[in-house]
Amino acid sequence: MKKLAALVIVCCLVIGISISNVMAEERGFMAGEPGYNPGAAGYDPGYKFFNPFNWWDEVPTITVRNPFDRGYWSSTGIMTITLKDLSKFYNHCGPGVTQGMRLCIAAGRELYKDGMIIRGDLRVVTGDTHGPAAVIEYITNAVYGKPLGKAGVWFNGKMVYDTSIGKYSFIFYRKSTGKAIKLTLKLGVPPKEMRELKKKQFAGKKLTPEQVARMKAMARKWAFKTMIMPDEELLEIEELKDFNWNAYFKKAYGG
Fold it and tell me: Which of 28, 129, 133, 250 is the most buried (most CB within 10 A)?
């Protein structure tokens, strides 16, 4: 009888922990941080994603085709990528993640009739190595790095860095049609306080718990502001005539 009671207690604990984990996963990294609780200081009702139950579902998603690995992605080779997917992959959901996703959504809409990017079809030029570039790699399979032998499977050279186009600019070139667009983020730099705290953190200086919480709250607002902004406020879109991908590739990798 005692063994049965102990077993019941253990089962209850396991179930309780599982439910707690699921709830934490749904709420994401916001739980317990400033801005999360409507009754606490720092809550901002202007950001609807503070709703702990459906904030993941209130922001855009992106659907892509993957003609090379249908079995891994889905039986049809078509998969919808959500912000929650990217957050799990990168273990955070900062401004670089949301900006990269919005850039890809815009590129898909401008370069494909149905808005669905074909992975492997795009070539990308980025003006800097900051966060959005990594997300663009994940979504488009345009990966930085000169392809060399077997490593070319991963580092396929379909993305290049070129500071001449501008730090917040990205060129998306659809090889199958020859069409190219330049997208430039109009957000500008993050708030001064956030930049200063990040700079201290990168320099190895220890931040107080209050400073860490403040920095995360600002980063979160900056990130999700990207996801709810209208296109015309977020991006400048320019179609590029006679775009020469090979010139950028040779400049970056030679040969």
Answer: 133
pLDDT in tens, 146-161: 877 655 456 789 999 9
Residues 6+ apart with CB under 8 A from 76: 70
- If one counts every other C-beta atom within 10 angstroms of the C-beta of residue 239, the result is 11
User: What's the rounded Cα separation, in Å, for the pair 79 and 151?
Assistant: 25
The whole-angstrom separation of Cα 118 and Cα 135 is 15
User: What CA–CA distance (Å, rounded) separates 251 from 253?
Assistant: 6
Count of residues in the chain: 255
Domains and CATH numbers, the chain: 56-253 (3.30.1330.130)
Residue 41: pLDDT band (50, 70, 90) is very low
Strands 179-185 vs 235-240: parallel, antiparallel or unpaired: antiparallel
